[in-house]
C-alpha cells in the first residue's frame, strides 16, 4: 500500500515535469510563429514594469540605506570606512539588487499572473479562446513571459541606482561625502564581471517569474479555491526558482570571472 | 438506447442535399473516462445540417463532455467522431484550429474576456481568427452582430457591468461573429430568470434561422428544449436512453424521460 502511494507520488512528480516541458515547448514555439501580440506585450510591460517601480524603488532605497548603516560599524572597526561605497556597490549590484527585486516581483507579479490566468481558466475564458481558434499561449503566455524577462532586468537596474542613492544618504548621516565622489567610488569598484552576470541572471529571474506565474495559472483546477492556490503556488515556486538560478549563476560566474 | 430510433421525426424540416440530409457531426460509440469513472459509455448520434439537437440529462452525466469532444477540448478514449467528414480524434493541431473556426461554442457563463470591453471581446476573434485588418469592416461586423442580439447599447461596457442574460447574449454574439456552421451551447439558460431564459431560447432559434446554423444545445431547461429542439436526446449514465421530438418524448413510457417533462416549466 505504502509502495503504491510512493509510486503514485513519483508518477505525479514526473507528470508535473512533463507538463512543464510541454508548456515550455508550446511557449517557445509560439515566440517564433507569426502574429506577435504587440499591443498586449506593451500593456504587460506597463503593468509589470511601471506599476512595480514604486515598490521596487522604495525597497531598494531602504536596502541601500540599511546596508550602509549595518556595514559602517564593522568597517569603522577595521579602519576601512572608505570602503563603504565600494562594498555597498558590489553587494547591491552583484547579489542583493537582483535577488531582492526578483523576489519582490515574484510576490507581486507571479501571484498576479497566476491569479489572473487562474480566474480566466475557472471562468472558461482560456477555453473560449482555444475553442474559437485563437491562440491563448500567444496572447496570454508569450506576452507575459517576455514582458517579465525584459522588465525585471530594467527594474533591477533602476532599483540598484536607487539603492546606491539610499546608501549615499545613509553615509551622509555620519560622514560628509560629495555625491560625485560617492558615485565615482561606487562605479570605480565595479567592472564588467559584476555587471554582465548580474544582468543575465535578472533576465533568467524575469523568465522564471513570468513562466511559473503563467504555468500555475494556466494549469489551475476549476474552482474558485484553485485561483488562490495558483497565485500562492506561483509565488512559492517562482521564489524557489530564483534562488536555484542564483546559486547556479554564482557558480558559473565564479568559474568564468573569478578564477 | 432503449427508445432511440423509435422517434426520429424532427420538428422542422432539415435542408437536404441531393435528396439526402447532410450530416455535419457523426458520432459513433464514443467513450470517455476520467480515471476510473466512465463518463461516456457509448454515445452515437448524427447532427444534420440546419438541425437543432437538444441533449437532456442530469448533472454529471457527461452532456458537456460530449460537446467538448466535438471541438477537440477533450480526446475520446474510443469511437468515431467526425465533424464535416473529418475525424476529430486523429486531427493535427493546425487542422483542429481550422475546424474550430467553423464551430461556435457558447459557455455556461458566456466566458467573456473580463479585461476587455464588449467591443474588444467581439473584435478579438475577428482580428485573431479571421485576421481582419480593415477597422471599418470590423466595426460593421461588431455592430451588426450586437444588433442581432439586441445589445448595441452595451458596446463600450465592461463584462462586469452586464447582467447574466446580457453576458450570454454577448457571448453568443462573439461566437456568431465568425459565422460558424455549427453552434454548441453549454446550458445557455442556466442561472437566468424564466423571462430571460425564454428570450435566450427564442434568440437561439432566431439566429439559427438567420445564419442557418446546426446546433447542439445542452440544457436542463425544458422550456428551452421545447422552444429550440428539432430532436431531443436524453442521456443517462453515459448513454442516450431516448431520442425524439419534444411531443414524442413527452408521452414516453420511460420513467426517467418522463421525469424531465413532469417538471414545472
Task: Describe, in plain words, how this protein is organized in 3D.
With 259 residues, chain A is mainly alpha-helical. Chain A contains eight helices and no strands. Chain A has one domain (37-257). In chain A, helix 3 (84-122) runs antiparallel to helix 8 (224-257). With 265 residues, chain B is of the alpha/beta class. Chain B has helices at residues 63-70, 93-100, 118-128, 135-148, 164-176, 194-211, 222-228, 246-250, 255-261, and strands at residues 16-17, 20-21, 23-34, 37-48, 52-57, 78-83, 86-87, 103-106, 182-186, 214-218, 231-236, 239-244. Chain B is built from nine helices and twelve strands.
Layout of secondary structure:
The complex is a heterodimer of chains A (259) and B (265).
Chain A: H1 2-32, H2 38-77, H3 84-122, H4 125-131, H5 136-174, H6 179-188, H7 192-218, H8 224-257
Helix pairs in contact in A: 1-5, 2-3, 2-5, 3-5, 3-6, 3-7, 3-8, 5-7, 7-8
Chain B: E1 16-17, E2 20-21, E3 23-34, E4 37-48, E5 52-57, H1 63-70, E6 78-83, E7 86-87, H2 93-100, E8 103-106, H3 118-128, H4 135-148, H5 164-176, E9 182-186, H6 194-211, E10 214-218, H7 222-228, E11 231-236, E12 239-244, H8 246-250, H9 255-261
Parallel strand pairs in B: 5-10, 5-11, 8-9, 9-10
Antiparallel strand pairs in B: 1-2, 3-4, 3-6, 6-7, 11-12
Helix pairs in contact in B: 3-5, 4-5, 6-7
Mean pLDDT of chain A: 92
Distance between the termini of chain A: 52 Å
As an assembly, this protein is heterodimer
Query: How large, in whole angstroms, is the Cα Rg of chain A?
Result: 21 Å
As for the number of domains of chain A, it is 1
What is the count of helical runs of chain A?
8
Percentage of residues in DSSP E strands of chain A? under 5%
| Count of β-strands of chain A | 0
How big is the Rg of chain B?
18 Å
Please tell me what the overall shape of chain A is: elongated
Widest β-sheet, arrangement of strands of chain B = 8-9-10-5-11-12
